[in-house]
Amino acid sequence: MSSSSIPPGYAAVTRLAGWAAPALAPFSSKVREGLALRARSAEEWTAWCGTARDPRRPLLLLHAASAGELRQAEPVLARLRRGHPDWQLVVSSTSPSTAHVVPSLPIDLGVTLPWDTPSETRTFIEALAPTALVFSHLDLWPALVAAAVARGTRLGVIAARVRGDSSRLAWPARQVFRSTYASLELIGAIDADDAERLIRLGVLAGRIRVLGDPRFDSVVERTAGRPAPRPHPTTLVAGSTWPEEERILLATLGSLHHAQVPARLVLAPHRPGAETAHRIAALARRVGLAPPRDLHSASDQDSLVVVNELGRLADLYGEGVIAYVGGGFRRGGLHSVLESAVWGVPTITGPEVQGFPEALLLRDQGALMTLPRRGAATTLEAWWETWLTNTEAREEAGRTARRTVREYTGAAERCARLIEDLMPGPTSG
């Protein structure tokens, strides 16, 4: 195994962040939430290691930054659980968004990573004693990697993606973190371009396999065997939206209503809550719309519905005939377009789709449309009305979306095989 050193100055920065967080907590709900989450998690994994950790059994620690990356790894974990019931499986994350995902996973424990300082990560790794540490996507933490290397834990990555414009590829980040990337033993890249960029980051070429993206498997398997939702004939479901997108969506809905087009919007903001609900209600008043209704109290006749909870979006997409996936007005921020495509729903996004091959694939097939930065509301109105009124075109785009998603499954099995190669014992048949 390659050695790994913590980048110069990195430990000092993370220690400073750990010391500063309590001082900032009174002024930031996000900081308070992060501190509370780490404190609760430390108690939970300490107790679990003392009572349930069996040192005779191999333990896989899989890290996923947030809910999206964890969903991406879900079909891989399912295969490993079926093939290796003797393994102990632990997942870690750094985001509270995983709270609604963890209970559905076939794992022994879900934790929040401690601060990435040498002392805290060493304590964490020594307590869990993982046989292998695998990252989903590429959310590497240098002190965690160094602690794992020091203990002899094997290191891997699945679904590795490096955008062409990633800041990690530029100096000084590429040089600073080179040792961390060189420590990885097996890496499953999504495609050949990702593999080339991983080499530039410091990963040894012979350790990389091009395996595809298990998100395709994830969305297909989560909907398999379940009855399709009944789509409302005039509904656009907009998911993981940011404020700038909500302004465009509501202005467009108001314009369609003014033109007497029977359009309905179900809006699931990226950050639901009371503050977001009040802001959306104010936007609705400004464009002449009726007050929004909460999803649980809404009827099919309500033209604006707001979802004030997490965890419902993947199913909600199937309840509309058009989808809008948020994050596309932010560089690198686009959310999953596969969750709508798997239901056979044509999709609209913002302009920032470079670096998201699945979005480009669907766009090339005519199942996804992107809005321009200038004139976004006008373009959105045109596509919204077209797909509402031209049923044949809309349904053909939906069939293309569903077919495309299913054609690209298979990566989950390949990723599971990679992890098996990091773990001891025979692989599953």
Descriptive account of the structure:
α8 links the parallel β6 (186-189) and β7. This protein has helices spanning 10-24, 29-51, 67-83, 118-128, 142-151, 173-176, 178-182, 192-201, 215-223, 243-258, 274-286, 313-316, 338-341, 357-364, 376-389, 391-407, 411-422; strands at 59-64, 88-93, 109-112, 132-136, 154-160, 186-189, 208-210, 235-241, 264-269, 293-294, 304-306, 322-325, 347-349, 368-370. α3 (67-83) crosses α17 (411-422) and α10 (243-258) crosses α15. The chain has 429 residues and is α/β, with parallel strands linked by helices.
Task: Outline the fold blueprint.
Layout: H1 10-24, H2 29-51, E1 59-64, H3 67-83, E2 88-93, E3 109-112, H4 118-128, E4 132-136, H5 142-151, E5 154-160, H6 173-176, H7 178-182, E6 186-189, H8 192-201, E7 208-210, H9 215-223, E8 235-241, H10 243-258, E9 264-269, H11 274-286, E10 293-294, E11 304-306, H12 313-316, E12 322-325, H13 338-341, E13 347-349, H14 357-364, E14 368-370, H15 376-389, H16 391-407, H17 411-422
Parallel strand pairs: 1-2, 1-4, 2-3, 4-5, 5-6, 6-7, 8-9, 8-12, 9-11, 10-11, 12-13, 13-14
Helix pairs in contact: 3-9, 3-17, 4-5, 10-15
